[in-house]
Automatic annotation (TrEMBL):
This is Ribosomal RNA large subunit methyltransferase H. It is found in: Cytoplasm. S-adenosyl-L-methionine binds at residues 63, 94, 113-118. One of its GO terms (cellular component) is cytoplasm. GO terms for molecular function: rRNA (pseudouridine-N3-)-methyltransferase activity. Keywords: Cytoplasm, Methyltransferase, rRNA processing, S-adenosyl-L-methionine, Transferase. Pfam families: SPOUT_MTase (PF02590). It catalyses: pseudouridine(1915) in 23S rRNA + S-adenosyl-L-methionine = N(3)-methylpseudouridine(1915) in 23S rRNA + S-adenosyl-L-homocysteine + H(+). It comes from Teichococcus coralli. Belongs to the RNA methyltransferase RlmH family. SUPFAM superfamilies: alpha/beta knot. Specifically methylates the pseudouridine at position 1915 (m3Psi1915) in 23S rRNA. Its EC number is 2.1.1.177. The lineage of its organism: Bacteria, Pseudomonadati, Pseudomonadota, Alphaproteobacteria, Acetobacterales.
Length: 149
């Protein structure tokens, strides 16, 4: 995971740590400093930082409101397909101003957690939870209860 901002200890950090500790393997987190200035410049500088932190050959997945919104089972299937490609997966999370167009252009996939805008520090924990849920779906672990009325 490559994310804008330094997450200090607090509820968002605890949420992320709780779910990330269950992931096999856990996500490695690279943090990009938040930029200051006009929104366009902030996006540009943070975007450059995100792209520079991408491991070589990574499959980049941008967390973006305009992205594809799979259900949890759909995400589990996507992850299986992405992992089968053999490239390291990199989930990119923007800052308060969102992701620069250069980041969206570089990303192979755009993933949305729904049409609502979430705080970027919360998105880390939400993504880790969905990745853990996807693992539970793939292994048949009862953490995921698929039953709906
Ligand atoms: C506060 S949001 C940025 C809002 C910005 N106006 C935009 O439209 O992207 C900060 C970051 O959290 C992530 N994010 C927030 N809500 C999201 C959602 N519903 N789906 C996917 N990512 C989301 C994105 O990476 C976003 O760049």
């Amino acid at each position: 995971m490559i994310a804008v901002g330094r997450l200090k200890s607090g509820p968002e950090a605890a949420l992320f740590a709780q779910h990330n500790a269950r992931l096999r393997p856990p996500l490695e987190v690279r943090e990009i400093p938040e930029a200051r200035g006009a929104a366009v410049e902030v996006r540009r500088r943070e975007g450059a930082g995100l792209l520079a932190a991408l491991p070589p050959g990574a499959l980049a997945i941008a967390l973006d409101l305009g992205g594809h919104t799979p259900g949890s089972e759909g995400l589990a299937a996507l992850l299986e397909r992405w992992e089968a490609g053999g490239k390291p997966l990199a989930f990119l999370i923007g800052g308060a101003e969102g992701l620069d167009s250069a980041v969206l252009a570089r990303a192979e996939h755009r993933l949305s957690l729904g049409p609502m805008t979430w705080p970027h520090f919360l998105v880390r924990g939400m993504l880790a939870e969905q990745l853990y849920r996807a693992q539970a779906i793939r292994t048949g672990h009862p953490y995921h209860r698929a039953w709906r009325p």
